[in-house]
Amino acid sequence: MKRTLDNTSDKPSEALSSGRIQAKRPKSSQACSSCRKHKTRCELIDNPSPADAHSGAGYRCHRCKVLNISCSFESSEFAPQLMARATPSPPPYLRYPHPTSTTGTEPPRIGPQNNPLSLAHRDAHAMLAPATPRLNSAAIKHGFIPREGSVTTPHTPQTPLGNVDAHIQQKEDYIKLEDLFPLPPNAPWGFVKVPGGFDWTATPMLAMQNITTSRAHYTHGEGEGMELHASLANILGPDNIKNLLHFESRYSPWINLQPFSAPNPSMLLTLAHCLVASRHLDPATRSAVVPPLQKLTEDAILRHVFSAIPSTQAIQAVMVLSLWCPIGGGEGGQGQGQGQGRGEVEVRDGRLLVASAVSMAMNLRLSQAIEYVAGLREEIRKEEVREEDVEGDIGDGVEKARLWLSLMNAEWLLCVGTGRSPLSQRTSLDHAAIEWSSHATIGACRDMRLALVGQLVEVTEAALRLHFEGKADFGRFYKEVNDVCTKFDNLLRLISPLPVVAEHEVFYFHFLVIYHNVCRLLVMHHCLRETRRVYADNSGQLWHTLAEHGGINLAAQWGQEALLLAEGTLSAILSIPAARAPPHSPAHSPHSHHSHSPHAHASHAHAPDPAALLNTAPDQIFAMLCFAASFLVMCKLAIHQNHGADLPGSSDLLLARAVELLVRSACAPDHAPAKCAQLIRGLIASFEARVRKRAHGAGVCGAEGGQGGQCNTSAVRTSVGRELRAEAAAGSASG
GO terms for CC (predicted)? Predict the structure, then answer.
């Protein structure tokens, strides 16, 4: 016989079997989730208190109410008649979770179209089953759900008392996921703090996979934070931790995120910051603390990398570790930074780390944040929604868009010129994702650099994809390269004045010029290699003399530009105010007048030594400088090998001062600038050895009767000039 919940039954003996009126629950839900888990008795005794009903806490069993914990009956489909008289409140899964609340992980339900609850809340929650009115197309398209406060529909439907029976019958049509499966903590179908939230019904197979594989979900609770904090304090000590946590002023400008974008950083992000900033410790302390600190950080990172729902701070931590390799762990060992010391840290591939960060960001759908924000702005423009209604959603989406843009720039920085294609893909909407026309504040300056670096990346990536198969296609290739150069020129016009007119973080605006020069140098190097691949043959003629179009030797033209860019890169880093070592006397050397570049006027009288700021640069920045210096040395080598002459100009002095700056910027022997300086010194030593060998009669100049085997370099400079420079750059591309 079917049981009824009607307490006005004509057979009171059936309802009074226990001596009091008590609502009977369906057999499919005999206890709440917590009581089932702990195998304890679950009782429904009292009505929800007025405070609970007003706050939306809902109905709880006696045990959960006494323990003051969440109860699955708060959002359960079981609804006794005594509960129907209370003021209805929205289920917890429709409310955005409080940071300390656990009810926000309650799953959404699939209900019929005519259910009044789903009709009341469908604008606030993306349901798959009902065809709901659209709040905004961007949220529907990307699965984003507006933040709390952006929906103007009432929180709760007013159910008339006369329709209680119909209301209960409609609620019985719901199927709640926890009635079928136990809910693990932080289940992937709960809300995630991304723009608008996350709906498990949008990825139902992900939910099923996690259930069937019994995947453990790592929780980032207070226990983990306390454990990591204790381990960190044990390794570094409180004083060192406090000194190292100046990451915002020393490192954040390189990744161009907003100041204090993480005002309360997680312990994972704190670990990453301390590991990177540990390079500023004294050598003895650094050698002792870096290896255990690196292991602690990596263990914590691994638990987040493989999480189904990583946090944005975990993504930022992985990005930081991909850009800055830990240094200084081997001074106390025998290897002295060569990998043989007892305390030497193990180097990780930054490209793999940043690929992990990109994959984590895609799991959170940060890659769709830009399109989401663009959709909201388009609806505001069309007056489909009011700006004040979606202001919070736009702000949250823009923050996610900034993180995604910074992550794309970091991935490009690590992948460009390596043969590895980035996982992230740029779109035409990236330019308008953030406002970058002002540089009045630190945040605006970072947005401007973030946008300009992204545009340089976009042009460079497009240029490096250009190819041509045969000589007949050379004209088309030349036109495409010209279009790329025009885009670079337009960006350079925007970038060049910024070191002078910017009001904040001027030092980092100088690097936009360096980024431009290196990007363009990579493109010219790519063009020379493509030309050599097609025109090099067995005819005996030099390939760079054959690559002509419209009567112009393009190999010579591109080679000349590449050489100018290589020298310009080193000049740019040395022209930053106070980049050169302080003179020993107040009087300047006669050769120091070139340091008064236009960029220097933006500096203050007591500007810090850029070497102290340069030592915080990402490792790949030094690789860029090293590439420019190596290209310059190869040009010198090609000129000397083909003509027995030196490259005209100030290349020797540029290289020497660049090496000096890199050495001063190094925090330890295994720091990237120290390694780059060592490589450049080795290239210069190899070149000078060849010059000496040729000067002693082994080369062409000695055979032609130069004085004592010396080449008449001044005569060569006068006779060749531009041709020598272009041929040198083309020859360096051949190598």
Answer: nucleus
- Tokens matching residue 517: 């020069």
Residue 536 phi, psi (nearest 5): -70, 125
- Tell me which residue of 267, 376, 389, 282 sits closest to 328, measured CA to CA: 282
Percentage of residues of the chain with pLDDT beyond 70: 58
pLDDT exceeds cutoff 80 at 44: no
What is the secondary structure of 561-619 as a DSSP string?
HHHHHHHHHHHHHHSSTT-SPPPSSSSPPGGGGGG--GGGGGS-TTPPPHHHHHTTS-H
Distances (CA, A) of 568 to 86, 225, 459, 494: 75, 48, 20, 17
Q: Concatenated DSSP letters for 419-486?
A: TPPPS----GGGGGSS--S--SSHHHHHHHHHHHHHHHHHHHHHHHT----SGGGHHHHHHHHHHHHH
Compute the mean pLDDT over every residue in the chain, rounded to the nearest whole number: 70
The pTM assigned to this predicted structure is 0.65
What is d(CA 449, CA 508) in angstroms, rounded to the nearest whole number?
8
Looking only at Cα atoms, what is the longest distance across the chain?
128
- Alpha-carbon span 454 to 271, nearest angstrom: 28
Give residue 498's pLDDT: 94
Closest by alpha carbon to 508, among 433, 426, 599, 630?
Answer: 599
Model confidence band, residue 104 (pLDDT cutoffs 50, 70, 90): very low
Ranges of each domain in the chain: 20-210, 222-364, 539-581+592-734
> What is the DSSP secondary structure assignment for residue 695, as one 8-state letter?
I
- Which two structure tokens, joined as six digits, stand for 412? 């490009």
Show Cβ contacts of residue 425 under 8 Å, excluding neighbours closer than 6 positions. none
Express each pLDDT in 234-265 by its tens digit.
666 666 666 666 777 788 899 998 887 666 77
For residue 553, give the 3-state DSSP assignment: strand
Alpha-carbon dihedral 235, 238, 241, 245, rounded to 10 degrees: 160
d(CA 412, CA 519): 11
Sign of the dihedral through C-alpha 280, 281, 282, 285 = negative
User: Is residue 200 classed exposed, middle or buried when 0-12, 13-18 and 19+ CB atoms within 10 A define those classes?
Assistant: buried
Q: With both helix axes pointing from N to C terminus, report the angle between 283-305 and 267-277 in degrees, rounded to the nearest 10.
A: 150
Please, is 391 exposed, middle or buried when counting C-beta atoms within 10 Å of its C-beta (0-12, 13-18, 19+)?
middle
Q: How far apart are CA 258 and CA 260, in angstroms?
A: 6
d(CA 718, CA 725): 12
How far from the centroid of its chain's Cα atoms is residue 294's Cα? 20
Dump pLDDT digits (tens) for 190-218.
Answer: 333 334 444 556 566 655 665 555 444 44
Residues in the chain: 735
Top-confidence residue, 151 or 523: 523
| Pairwise CA distance, residues 355 & 375, whole Å | 27
Q: Which residues, other chains included, contact 429 with Cβ-Cβ below 8 Å and sequence gap of 6+?
A: 370, 371, 374
Q: Report CA-CA distances (Å) from 534 to 477, 547, 721.
A: 12, 9, 27
Residue 549 backbone dihedrals phi, psi, to 5 degrees = -150, 125
Higher pLDDT, residue 399 or 433? 399
